Amino acid sequence: MFQTVKQLLEKGTIDEKINTIKGKFQAALKTSLSSSSSNSLGSVGAGKERERKYILTFTQLSPLGICPPPLPLIQVNPNLFKRILTEYADVPFSFYFEEIQEPFPVIQLQIQEQLPLLTEGEPSDGLHHYDFNIQEYNRKRQDHSVVQDIRPHFLRGFQEPIQTFSLTPAHLKALTLTDLYSSAMSLSHLSYVCIQNVQLKGKTKKQLFRTLVQTPMLETLILKSLNIGSIQKAHLPKLRFCDLSNNKIRSLHSMRKLINSSPNMEVLDLTGNPLAMKEEEIYIYRLLGKLPQLEILNKKTVTIENRLKSLSGHKRAILEQIRWELHLDQLAEIRQLRPIETGWRPQNIQQINLPNQQLGFFYVGNMPNLRSLDLSGNLLTDISSAGLEKCDHLLFVNFRNNQLISTADHTPLSVIALMPSLQCIKLDGNPRCQNYRSKLIYLGRNSKGTNRSTGLIQIDSQVVTREEKIAAIELYEPGQVDSAASYLWKLLLIERFGHKQLQTIPDFLAYVKSLELARCNVMRADLSVFHQLEVLDLSQNKLTHLQGLSSLVRLRVLNLFDNPDLLTGPVISQMVALESLESFIFHVSNPTHQRNGSKDYRRSVLAGILLKNRNLSLLDNNVISFDERVQSYLDNNFPIEIVEKYRFFLALTVNCTLPFNRGLYPDQVEIGSQYDPLVITSLLRLRSWSLTSPAMNLRVFENVQEIDLSNNRLTDCLNIGLQSLVNLTKLSLINNQLANPILLIAQLLDGMQSLEIIALRGNPIMMKPEHRLSLIGHMSTMKQLDHTLKVIDTEITIYDKVEGWKLSGGSITEAESFKLSYICMIRDLNIYDYQIQNLELSDCALEYLDVTNLVNLKTLLLPNNRFRQMQSIKSLHALHDLFALDLRYNQFEQMLDMALGIQPLLSLRVLGIYGNPFPKSSITYRIQFLSLVPGLFKQHQHPLSILDSQEIHPEELVESSLLVQTCPCQDKREYLFHISMLRKAPTVPFEMLTELDLSNCKISILVLRSLTKLVVLSLSDNLITDSTLRDSGINNLQELKALDIRNNHLKDLSNLCKIVDLLNIESLFVEENSCFDKDNQKSRIKFFKKCSNSKVITTLKYLNGNQVTSVDTEKLEIPVISIIQVEPKDDSKLNFDEEFYMDHVFDSQYEEVVKSEPKLNYSIDNNEHLKTKYTSPNVQTENHQDENNTSESTTTEQLSINCTNKKLSRRQIKNKVFFEKQKLDKQKRILKKSLKEQG
């Protein structure tokens, strides 16, 4: 172990740990010091001051001991004494809020069209162009290929369908052998034989076949379950339905005669025969080769593939054609024609859908009315010879996922050009036919399309756009630019109005009133036929030529926005004759273009069209401003004098008339032509017109009251007729170029007796604040307190008048007297009344004040003025009754001057000096100023208690006194106590004090020995410790009845209890200390447990404001006679204290006091010295604390009962007796010690 300790010492680990712990202690100490120093004056004790239910009040303090209320916190308010007469005290006057905006012209764009309609309604199919050569087109279609006779396979046999059982007459049917062998049966005409479920033998079989040979017209033969193995001698050329099921036929050889003699057989059933049970299918191919019309074999439809496999010889050369014919057999549309019409009628077919059938050939040239053809997913390689050009009404073809081949020498798509009605074609999925879209569009450009679009409508799954059609023409006709532009214009008109309407209704376009073709890439437009057109929108196109514009005499709206290639000159030249035009849009969005909304572009356009067009109000969706109208005359070289006159007259017309039906041309804006000048009372719309002085004359507007001429170019305001306007009250000349002398303008304003408001800012003569003050100073009316003119830009204040007076060379004394007269007028003050006691002149900008006659002043408030010296307040030293003086926010620079100025004021209790420009110092201005008033800390030579908004604290007086002298006491803390006493009891001798409030003084040393008369003492919220209290001499205060020592640094409860034992305190406040933090039942019991003097029970009535009860004192340890073991002594030897103590211990009333409950009606009011007020509660008490105490006592009592009821053993009883004895010995020692301390 020693070796381990040695190693630790060598490594220095212990030193490191010691240094670490030392560092932690130092950090904790610093934290504690910083937290204690950051406490406010109200929380200087043991902890932060809490909300208190009870406080001590003092009634016998002298008036100087009561601290007056502090000065309220103020902010600099230069407008406090400003008498606001108008709304322009802070905001400069202008007519901004009365500005009237011109309404935006509303152009009627919705026009009720009255176009002629077709009698048969809107058609679905289109037409060829009106200039299309239809004869040449049909000739090419006719010569392209020859019509072939290709029909469905089933139509090569009998044309009529097989007659069913129900449709066959009874005399032509044989249903039994008896019927068949009957003599009445005509075998030559028999067409239906049905014999089944009969077991035939040799003779009967032969008889049956001999009979059947005699039926040449037989169509239906049913021989089911007849035990037939072969069919002999059967020659039935008309046979179409044959059922031989459930027999014993084993080979085709046994029925060869029947097969060879029945080429038209359509249905054959061999199920249930050994032949049909064979897995080989070769017999099927043999049957199909012999029976070309066979459709159903063994109750199954013969597939096309099986039929094709059965072909042989020359028929295999036309295999694909036969496949097409066989597929036609499957079409329900063709099958439905069979029972309706006999023979082949291909002209009735309108739809063919044969997708995914492996077709390599098709032909539809004999189907002229075909409208839809779907051959997708086949093996087609060519469609040029399929007769598509013969289909006049074919609208839709689908050749997707085929094997079409397109090469440079041969393209199967050329036939598209000869299909007049084709609208939709699908060719995607042909791997050897690519990049065909633009070619198809070009080839199909002449097809009829729909009534709203010519050419192909859709290719594959995408609609053919107008742009693609034009691009195809430009691609395959590169040298003909006009051709694409003309074709586009035709397409647009067809889309807008309908192809049939344009071709069948004469002069259809002459009825059109509105034409909107925006964003259509139009390059050429011919408008010569639109005679009734009123609204034309060709914006965002690619126009290069615009023809026929001059013929649109009724055109009101023309929109040519974003047509950068359209030349300006030709368009403007055509618009000269358009006298009905109201709106014209011509600018270009490209910022580099010359028509990108620049002012020069607008000027050039307006100069060309505005003078001759009286209805034009919008250019590029912007209102043509009045200034632009005036400028257009300048651009047309009119004399400038005439133009400026027109500008002035136009401004007056706009001001005096409504915008509806207002004339704006020179012959319409003369004064009096549209309004009566004598009726006009306001001219508020003359601002921002660039008006000049030579062109203006306002004399005729005799009754006008308001004029706004701001933002113009006026240079002279003396010769525009203002002198004649006797009713003018408001005038704005802001932002002009006035250059008249200020003196002449002042004379003009003096002569305008009705003028109340004028605004002159923004002119060369009014660029600085001094110019405005100079104008006010030169006006004779401004020397009066009341005048008509109230506002020059802003409201004219008394300060403006005074400063203007000084600036214009007036007397300063007269100006200040004028200012004071104004202040007295608005405040209704009589400054010459010597009986006045309170005078407030804050925020008056005063530099001088004479208070000679105001000898009775008690309050003088002069914050926020311009005083520089105390001498500026004349006769201030003579105000002997002055109680409060407020000099905050002035211009005092010397603190000593202020200190010397207040020393003669022996009644001054409140002083305000904050906000003055004192020299900066490391010492706070309060300490520095207080050090200049020695009467505050040497003796009570000055009563000043409040400095600014805070009470002068004793600690501040200590600091200030130490700046000018050494500490008169050995301990600075004791000096603080004496200063506090001086401030709290300035006029009463200390030994005669009965009430003393030293709360919140930061004192840590007490000297109370001489204060023997004290009855009420408050030491709360200080820094008092246990030793301070013990050494303070408080035990001499035997008349003390109330003591408040809350929120200090008391830690030893025993020490406090010893002091309480020696006093006769009736009310004690001790909480908020470390030894007694909160006033709860546990703390109160602990407190009384520490007390050793029994008189505490009878003397102390209130603890922390709450009445003392028996519950609080039940643990008080009072020695009884049985536990005091005293040797026999002579009673005479007992000193007085012991005798007094013993008398109280063995007093017969002691038990009664202990046992009885405390008197609830006890009140401090019964005390003659204290009356009632020092324990008045400041908040209502709450019951939750009592509830907690009650619950705690209940719990303790319950525990006691549990211990009592518990059965104890002998050993436990012995131990209990021993501990009781030890407890009694301890009480004995405490008692002896107490007696010794008492004397």
Automatic annotation (TrEMBL):
Region (Disordered): 1166-1199
Compositional bias per record (Low complexity), positions renumbered to this chain: 1188-1197
PROSITE patterns in alphabetical order: LRR
Organism domain of life: Eukaryota
Entry's transmembrane regions: none
Keywords, alphabetical: Leucine-rich repeat, Repeat
Biased composition (Polar residues): 1173-1182
UniProt feature coiled coil, ranges: none
Position of the signal peptide: none
Gene3D superfamilies, A to Z: Ribonuclease Inhibitor (3.80.10.10)
Protein name according to UniProt: Uncharacterized protein
